[in-house]
Design goal:
Residues 1-5 have low confidence and may be disordered. The protein has helices spanning 10-17, 51-60, 112-121, 137-143, 203-220, 240-246, 275-293, and strands at residues 24-30, 42-47, 67-70, 76-78, 86-89, 97-100, 103-107, 124-125, 146-147, 150-151, 156-162, 168-172, 190-197, 199-200, 226-230, 253-254, 257-259, 266-269, 302-304. Helix 3 runs antiparallel to helix 5. A five-stranded antiparallel β-sheet has the order 6-7-13-11-12. It has a four-stranded mixed β-sheet with strand order 1-2-5-3, covered by helices on one side. Strand 9 and strand 10 form a beta hairpin. The chain starts with 9 loop residues before the first helix and ends with a strand. It folds into three domains: 10-89, Uridine Diphospho-n-acetylenolpyruvylglucosamine Reductase, domain 2, CATH 3.30.43.10; 94-205, Uridine Diphospho-n-acetylenolpyruvylglucosamine Reductase, domain 3 (2-Layer Sandwich); 224-296, Uridine Diphospho-n-acetylenolpyruvylglucosamine Reductase, domain 1 (Alpha-Beta Complex). The chain is of the alpha+beta class and 307 residues long.
C-alpha cells in the first residue's frame, strides 16, 4: 500500500519565498467562521495589507498553488473538506470609501450596505439598492449583484483588479460583459477598488428609500437566519421561489438544513447543518423543480472546496 502524501503547509512554506510580505497568512482557518451559512472546512487564508502587498504575494506565489478569493462569505457555500491552495480575503487596506462630486470610490472589501450608506450621507442617488444586497463590493463586481430593479452594471464606472501573476488591471464597465448575475471578466481577477456614479439627490429621500428596502427584506426574507441569500437564479420569465414552492419544497429538510418557510429561495442552517446537508438539500430542490416544471434551476450561491 502506498503512503498518503503529506498535505502541503503553505503557511509555513510561503514566508520564506516572500521576505517582503506584509499581510497575514493563517493556517487551517475554519471557513465556517467566515461564511454566513456557518459551514465549511479549513483553508490557508491570506489577508494582504494593501494592493501592492497583494501584487507582491501573487507575483511570488508558485504557479501550481490554486487561488480562491472570498469576501464576507454571504453568497458562499464552502464544502466540509475545505479549500485547497490559498484563500485570499481582503481586509482593512481595502475598506475605505470616499465621495467626490457624483463619484463614489470604494475598496472591494467594503460591505455593500456601507456603500449605500456612504452614498446616502453624501446625497448621491442611485446606489440605495445596495442596502438590499448582502456581501461586499468585490463579490458584487464578480456576479453583477443587484436588488430592487437595479444592478451593479447600472452604477459602475470602473474597477481595479489584480491577476494571478500580480499585474494590475483597470476595467471599464463595458469590459465586464455584465448580464444577469454574471460577469464575463477573467475569473482569476481579484478586485481591489471600484468607482460608482450616482446622481445628486436628497439625503433624507435616499435614506427613506433604504429604510423601505430594509423593511421589505425583513418582512419577506429570513435575514436573521444562517443563510447564504438567494440560492438559485431566477430563470428567464420565472421566479425561482415560485417554482420551488410549486414543487412542494417549502420547509423541506435534509439533516439540519431547511428550505426557508418564509422565502423558498433561501436555504438555512438550523444550527448544526453540514455543508453536505445544505448542498444535498439544494440538489434535491433542483431535482423536484425539474420534475415538476421541466425547468432546471441554476445555483446563484457559489459552491467551493472538496467534500
Amino acid at each position: 500500500m502506498g503512503v498518503e502524501a503529506k498535505a502541503r503547509d503553505l503557511a509555513a512554506e510561503l514566508p520564506g519565498l516572500m521576505p517582503k510580505l506584509r499581510g497575514r497568512l493563517i493556517a487551517n482557518q475554519p471557513m465556517a467562521d467566515i461564511t454566513w451559512f456557518r459551514v465549511g472546512g479549513p483553508a490557508t487564508l491570506f489577508s494582504p495589507a494593501d494592493e501592492e502587498d497583494l501584487c507582491y504575494f501573487l507575483s511570488m506565489l508558485p504557479a501550481d498553488v490554486p487561488v480562491t478569493a472570498v469576501g464576507v462569505g454571504s453568497n458562499l457555500l464552502v464544502r466540509d473538506g475545505g479549500i485547497e491552495g490559498i484563500v485570499i480575503r481582503l481586509g482593512r487596506g481595502f475598506n475605505e470609501t470616499s465621495v467626490e462630486e457624483n463619484l463614489l470610490k470604494t475598496g472591494a472589501a467594503v460591505p455593500d450596505i456601507r456603500v449605500a450608506e456612504a452614498a446616502a450621507k453624501a446625497g448621491l442617488a442611485g446606489l440605495a439598492f445596495y442596502r438590499g444586497v448582502p456581501g461586499s463590493i468585490g463579490g458584487a463586481l464578480r456576479m453583477n449583484a443587484g436588488a430592487y430593479q437595479r444592478e451593479t452594471k447600472d452604477a459602475l464606472v470602473e474597477a481595479r483588479a489584480v491577476d494571478r501573476k500580480g499585474n494590475v488591471h483597470v476595467l471599464k464597465n463595458a469590459d465586464f460583459g455584465f448580464s444577469y448575475r454574471h460577469s464575463s471578466a477573467p475569473i482569476d481577477l481579484i478586485y481591489t477598488h471600484a468607482v460608482f456614479e450616482g446622481t445628486p439627490g436628497d439625503p433624507a429621500a435616499i435614506k427613506a428609500e433604504m429604510e423601505q428596502i430594509t423593511e421589505k427584506r425583513e418582512a419577506s426574507q429570513p435575514v436573521k437566519s444562517r443563510t447564504g441569500g438567494s440560492t438559485f437564479k431566477n430563470p428567464e420569465g420565472h421566479k425561482a421561489w415560485q417554482l420551488i414552492d410549486a414543487a412542494g419544497c417549502r420547509g423541506l429538510i435534509v439533516g439540519d438544513a431547511q428550505v426557508s418557510e418564509m422565502h423558498c429561495n433561501f436555504l438555512i442552517n438550523r444550527g448544526n447543518a453540514t455543508a453536505a446537508d445544505i448542498e444535498t438539500l439544494g440538489e434535491e430542490v433542483r431535482r423536484r423543480v425539474k420534475e415538476n416544471s421541466g425547468i432546471q434551476l441554476e445555483w446563484e450561491i457559489v459552491r467551493l472546496g472538496k467534500n
